[in-house]
Specification:
Elements lengths: L25 H5 L4 H16 L13 E4 L11 H7 L3 E4 L7 E7 L13 H18 L3 E7 L6 E6 L2 H17 L8 H10 L6 E6 L7 H11 L3 E8 L2 H4 L6 E4 L6 E4 L1 H26 L2 E6 L4 H13 L9
Helix pairs in contact: 2-4, 2-10, 4-5, 6-7, 7-9
Length: about 325
């Protein structure tokens, strides 16, 4: 499905904006300085809303507490202690293995679409930049693969040094500036990660619109879960892909082929919406059944809210689901 406009059902788990601080519109955020600055703003916005959500810590036994400081793992914050003392304390655990995180950005041509918000590529890049910032702050290792055009596929190895974040951000900025091109699905990039992590489980986070005619991406995501990797998906759609708000004779152009069609939107709207509803139901059903942490988001949704929803979902995973 590569046409320039595609709708779908509502976003995935989200946080009630009435229970969180004011969010920044993604279009405004995208104009706020460099990518590292934008990433830090997203993370700080998510953290400022985190204490309002119901988040359970790890079930691992802990020996003592210490006051929270930047770099401490968020899932170890003791919210009961915060409620009593109005200060953040972190549960101290026995030494844990360093987590390896691979971020996968779909930079194929369909991610260039921007009807009712910023381009999907830019939204996905911002979301993954914030995650990279958060991972490095937690002193874990993070890598990046950007896919779409096989000739331009980019791999940043997983490392945990603070200067590695600068390198990764620079690559992300160049990908966003280059724009979305090509028609390769993320399936090959996910298979490459499977090869890179054969001896060690990892957390893999994909940002994509999942427009893959053969469903190879869904199959690869399910396979990664079967191999005991921890997998999260940010399924990114533009608002116009959900509402199909077009009137009058309109020419639609495919983003990954040369196909063009001139139609009356009113004549195809119902069929279009039904097909997209079916597509998204299949995606959600397949990934949920496989045990993948699935989030459907729109490019108009504040990125702080998207990151917060992902943090909360991960905090609720049992220890057996966390990569080690």
């Amino acid at each position: 499905m590569t046409d320039a406009a595609r709708p779908g059902p509502g976003p995935g788990p989200a946080v009630d904006p009435r229970e969180t601080p004011l969010w920044i519109d993604p279009a405004q955020l995208a104009r706020l300085g460099s990518l590292p600055i934008q990433a830090r703003v997203i993370v700080e916005g998510a953290l400022s809303g985190l204490h309002r959500a119901s988040v359970h810590g790890s079930s691992v036994e802990f020996a003592e507490h210490k006051e929270y400081s930047p770099g401490d793992e968020l899932r170890h914050v003791d919210w009961k202690a915060y409620g009593k003392l109005d200060r953040y304390y972190v549960k101290q655990f026995e030494q844990e293995s360093q987590l390896t995180v691979y971020l996968v950005l779909d930079a194929s041509a369909s991610m260039a679409f921007a009807g009712g918000g910023i381009a999907k590529l830019q939204y996905g890049g911002l979301a993954l930049a914030a995650l990279a910032y958060l991972v490095i702050q937690q002193q874990d290792k993070v890598g990046l693969i950007a896919c779409g055009d096989r000739a331009l596929e980019t791999l940043v190895p997983a490392r945990g040094r603070s200067n590695h974040l600068h390198d990764l951000m620079s690559v992300l900025e160049s990908i966003i500036a280059r724009g979305a091109t090509g028609d390769e699905s993320p399936a090959a990039a996910l298979a490459r990660i499977a090869e890179l992590t054969r001896r060690r489980r990892a957390l893999i986070i994909l940002a994509s619109d999942l427009f893959d005619a053969d469903d190879d991406t869904l199959k690869q995501l399910s396979q990664l879960r079967a191999q005991r990797h921890d997998v999260s998906v940010l399924h990114i759609l533009d608002p116009h892909e959900r509402s199909f708000p077009y009137d009058g004779l309109t020419q639609f152009e495919a983003l990954e082929t040369d196909h063009k069609v001139l139609v009356n939107p009113a004549a195809i709207r119902r069929d279009y919406l039904d097909r997209m509803d079916g597509f998204l139901a299949r995606v959600r059903g397949t990934l949920t059944a496989a045990g993948v942490d699935y989030h459907l988001v729109e490019t108009s949704q504040p990125l702080e809210q998207t990151l917060l929803a992902l943090i909360i979902a991960r905090s609720r995973l049992g220890p057996a689901r966390r990569a080690s």
